[in-house]
What we know:
The protein is an all-alpha fold. The chain has helices at residues 2-7, 10-28, 39-63, 65-71, 84-108, 115-130, 138-159, 168-199, 201-206, 212-216, 218-228, 230-244, 248-268, 275-294, 299-304. The chain has 15 helices and no strands.
Amino acid sequence: MISFIKLVRFKNLLILVLAQLLVKYAFLEPLKSQTSLNAFGITLLILATICIAAAGNIINDIYDVNTDAINKPNQVIIGKAISEKNAFTAFIILNIIGVGCGFYLSHLVNKPPFFILFVLISLLLYVYTTMLKRLPIIGNILISILVGFSILIVGIFDLLPGLTPANKHFQLAFLKIIFKYAVFAFSINLLRELCKDIEDYQGDFQQNMKTLPILIGIKNAKYLLSALNFVPLVLIILHVSNQLYLYPWAVGYFLIFIVAPLLYICIITFSASNKSDFSKLSNRYKIVMLFGILSLLLYKFVILK
């Protein structure tokens, strides 16, 4: 059981669940938006999302077993604690559960075409693992889009089914803020993916992968990673200056827990030189992501005050 929990990257799934719950219960519900998902509906959405994400993590480890044997020999699970056959069976079952929940949920909110979103996500995760992951930047962008979409999908299922001419302005205003968080998640995850590519340079090189650090070199990849940190920084500063400038404590939260850590990461990236350094950077990006998601707790105080 412990091996399976590690295989599906349980901690990452918990962050995903937290993000979706916060969008629903810390943002949309307190602000009295016209929502379509009840407790059962949001549970179905979370179950569909984490099952498909877990399946994606499993198929990723199945195809990466040789690379992981070089990059992370002590963390290899496939072929040791869990056989490849059992892992692939779990991949199929989780996808069936996830897509099945998505099918039921789409009909529950009277939007059957929304079902295709879950099928598309499942297919894209498979294509990412089997084809795009070996290509420079394309795979990183795709997986980061899917991470961002895991936040946006709550707004799609909770807001769009109840959209009417009378509430259109307010519903789309809520969706716009959720979209901003999806872009934030996309940008931070993209930085983390690039960081992990640098960390896994040796194994990826031996497996003839064409990641960005292999094409342009680790030194140039480090410079690019450091420079790209300014993308979410600028986006965050613009968001705070437009939405939260009247609330110093909210501005302080973003400055202390998101802007300052990103600036720190930007600086220490230049001195990072080994796998351990880049592993720590990757974990710091995850912490920034977490604090960014937790900022959703601020809005009921900011907007409803």
